[in-house]
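Hi both,

Apologies for the delay on this - the queue was longer than expected. I finally got the zinc ion-bound model through. Below you'll find the protein sequence and the ligand SMILES exactly as submitted, and right after that the C-alpha cells for the full complex including the ligand.
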Amino acid sequence: MPLEYYVNIQDDSVFLQPEFEEMVLHELGHAMDYGTPDWFQADLWQTAVDADNAFVTEYAKTNTGEDFAESFVAWVIYRAYRERVDPSVLKSIERIAHRLQYFDDRLNNPLATCKSIKPYESLFQC
Ligand SMILES: [Zn+2]
C-alpha cells in the first residue's frame, strides 16, 4: 500500500524564509512517525525519550508527535549540517543523545554514509 501523507503549508510567504528547510524536515519527521507504522517502533522511541530526560526544543514538549518531529530535525542538523549552526545549538541537541541514536539505528546513518534511507532514499540525494 503506498504511503499517503499530506503536508499542509498554509502561508505561501514561508517559502521565502530561511526556516523553510527546517519546517519541511519537521513535517517529514511527522510523515515518518505517523505514516510508517512498520518503521516507527514506539517502544524503542519511548526508551530513548526516557533515557534522555530532556527535550531539544520547547515545542518538542507539546506532545509525542512534535517531540519526534523536532528530534528528527535535530538529528538531520547534527549529522549533516553541523557547520551551519552555533555550537550552543549542537550542545542542546546532544541532550537528546538517545534519540539521535534511535535515528542512527533506524536509518543506518544515511546522511553520513549516503547509502540508504529506505523508504525515503529518493528524498536524500547525496
Ligand atoms: Zn509538527
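Main takeaway for now: The radius of gyration is 14 Å.

I'll put the files on the shared drive as well.

H.
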